[in-house]
Structures are given as structure tokens and as C-alpha cells.
Amino acid sequence: MTHGTRYTGATSIELAEGWSLERLTPPSRLFGANGLRTGPDGRIYVAQVAGSQISAFDVGTGELETVSAQGSDIVAPDDVAFDERGDLYATEYYDGRVSVRGAGGRTRVLRDDVPGANGITFHRGRLFVDECRIGGRLLEMDLEGGAPRVLLENLPMPNAMEFGPDGKLYYPLLGTNDIWRIDPDGGEPERVAGDLGVPDAVKFDAEGRIISTQVATGEVLRIDPRSGERTVLATIAPGLDNLTFVGNRLFVSGFTGHITEILGEGRTRAVLPGGLTWPLDLTAGGDGTVYVADGTYFYALPPGGEPRTLGMLFSPGWPGYIRGVTAAGDGEFVVTTSLGQISRWRPAAGEHVVLAGESVPFDQLYGVATAPDGAVVAAELGTGRVVSVRGGEVTTLAAGLDRPMGVAFDSDGTCLVSESGAGRVVAVTGSGVDTVVDGLEAPQGILAADGTLTIVDAGAKTLVEVDLNALADGLGGKARTTIARDLPVGAPLGEPPKPLKGLMPFTGPQGLFAGIAAGPDGALLVSADAEGSVLALRRTR
């Protein structure tokens, strides 16, 4: 099968002499896998919220085609459906929109006032959509773009839905852990099944039985709506999202981008492997384990091993979508989240403590580091600040910066910050900020160690090394070396992706962040967020 990857660079990665590169994880095929729908052409259409992308997957050949790419008019698609003409309708979760993409590729917005737009389905020429949020609505959409008809409201997080053979609309509720149905032409809703594994999608097999993915338990359930009989068809992993049939073959999706065929009797077949979705920041332990913040997942990557999930969206004590991370002891991490909080998190104990941002969240936190005196320092992109947290008190170390992202401390304890909007790295001093390195495009992750500053310039797609001692001696021209070019980091080539607004209280605005960390063997570890891998760059001499 020819799966391909989600990112195609202009050229292969170019390394400076004396350096080698290893991919610790393979590039990802998709930006996660959310809504699934079999199209009129028999291919599976895969909505990818994180990547603002829709792909079509041919289960016969294994070929993937990007139907709606990052940077196009559809933003953060969560689910898709087709009308009788073959036009594709997509719910845009973060933007609260329902869009229509015609066969010719032209896209128009049907409605832009559907917050948390998620589940979507057609039935006899009628379009139905729900909102996956607390207080969500179940709507029948006007195909001409007029005001929708409200079937139900104040629902606790409805999700992917489908009509049953009885002509009723079946919808799962994540907030109450059950499945309901309603006649779209009138009548009271009825509870069909409860006490499940947090159902997030409902479809029907050829015998009229409900097939439902369970996001918390990772089960694929078959439920007879007449008798209530339940059967576990397979247990895969927490994070299942949706399902579809191609003929009589059943396929399910997962947050990590995997698509799995359910074969019966508990057997499964991976038809498309999962991978990293973002990834964002990373940190390393003394034993060589690399820890990767991947938005809704957090992984431990042991030397020579496979990624192991330490926590995810439905884990006990989960602190929220993790963006920045630094190790803070054995099994303990300080993290920044898209919820606007700085927390100390212990995955094994299933607990976290909010250090700052609980009552008044920060505005788009990114990199985080621990100062020599033990204070936690983080970059707040939205306000242009660098903040320090100690004993619950928040102090502003610097303000008025242009999109600060990365934070690091050099050997003498000076706080260094990357200003992605200004194309420079600055040192935060008692009197303000001083430029350390400028002339960059969009610096993000930074690392300071042994008199050397290493910068991931996501705009230029380069990894830059700066000799701080040479810089201090006035040898600016000799201080800077480009270690790697054409790195798979930052925005894809071509049209830049549109911002992901987020939907509180689940997540704030989301954005790209290519982090960097030092491995105990001296490797430079880089999160290649564009292709979804972790890179290790090492000196060969």
C-alpha cells in the first residue's frame, strides 16, 4: 500500500558538514483522524481537525489524496457528509461553521453561527447538524443558508449521529454517556442505551444494529436498538472517534490518525497507522527517554523504543491540551496548556496542580522553563509577555514582545526568549530586553547549553546554532551556523494554515510550535511538527 505522508518539502533535509540526522518516530500520514464518511466514489473521507485537512483514503489501493488542504477555505473540519449530488458538507468545529464543497472544488459557508459544529448527516435530502458543547443544539439546516430549525437544545455534548432504519435520528451524548433518538418531525427524545464507554459516534450496519465507537474505553460496540443486546466487536485504544462502512467492511478512526478495520471476533487490521498529530514541545530525561507534548496526547519515547502514552484527553488528572513542557523531577513535568494554565503534572499519579491561570487564564501560553532559582517562566504569546510564577504569584518579566514563544536559560542564568513575530531572540534583563540574535524569520523553540544557543527557525525551516561566547566577543559574523535547512517544521509550503480558534472550556486557540530539547547523549531533539515526527541531530565529529 502507498500511504505517502502528509508533508512534502521542497527538497530533502540539508545538513551542515559534521552532522547526522535520525527520525525517532516516522512521519505521520494524517493530522489525526476524526470524522469518517464513505463517499460516492467508495473512498473513505477523513476529517482532520488539527490539520484543517480532509483526505480521501482508498481502502483497496491504500492511496491517500488530499481533498481539502491546510490553508484552504475549510478550517478544522470535524465531520463530513455528502448530498445526493456528491457535494461535500463539513462541520468546522472551532469556527462554528458548516461549509459546502462542490464537486468543482469551490467552497461556500452555509452557516457561521453553529458553535461547536460537529456531527453531520443527510437523510432524504435533509441536512442535520449538532454542536458538541455543553448546551449544544441539534439542528436541521436550511440548504439555502437560512436560519436552522432547532430540534433540541441544552444537550451535553452531542457528537457524530446517524439515522436508523426506523427513520429516527440517533445521537450520542458524551456528557451523559448514552445514546438517544428522536423523530425529526416531532415527538419526545428517547434514551436507547446508557452506561457505555463515552460514545462519540453512531452508525448502523446492514441488519439495522447500532455500531458505536467509545472514546474513553476504546471499544467498538454493537447495540441492538430493539433488544438492547450489546456486543464488543473490538477494543483498540482510548481516543476512538468515528466509523464508516465500505460495503460490509467496518472501519474506525482514532485521534492519533489510525484507521482500523474491524474483522470480527475481536480481530482488527491496521489499514492506516497512527502517528504524532502536532507534535509541539518536548523534553528529555536522564535515561534518554524523550517526552513529547502532542496536544491531546503526551508520550514517552524510550531509546530505540516505540512511543508510549503517558496521558491523553481522557486520562485521570489530565491538565489540558499540552503545548509547552519541561521535566521537573522523576515522573513530574511543568506544562503550559491551551486552556491558558501553567501546571505541575504527575501522569503516573493521575493528578496535576495549577500553578497559575486557574481563575484568569493566560492568553496563548507556549514555551516554559525552570529558572535557576526554581521559578517557572513561560511565554504568553497573546499578550506579548514573559511571566514568572513562584508560590502562586505571577510576575511580568518582560512585556511588549512580538509573539514570544520559546524560553530558555543560559549558563549564567539569563532568560532568553524567542520573538517569533520580530524574528529575533532576546535576553530578558532587569531593565528590559536586549537583542541576542536577529535576522530570523519566525524563531520558536530555543535551547541554551554550554555557551551555545540553538534556535528552531520555523519560518526559514532551519536549525541555527549561535556561539554566545563569540557573540559576546564581537565576532557576530562567525558566531552563527546553520545546522540544518529545509526542516519539516512550521507551516506547510504554499498557503499558510488559518488560525484554529479553539472552543473554551475545552481548548483555547491552537497554533504550531516546533520545540527543541537536549538529549543526555548530546543530541538535539526537534519536534518536526509539519510532518509529525521527532528528529535527533548529532555531531559526527
UniProtKB/TrEMBL annotation:
Domain SMP-30/Gluconolactonase/LRE-like region: 31-248
Stated name of the protein: SMP-30/gluconolactonase/LRE family protein
Origin species: Actinomadura chokoriensis
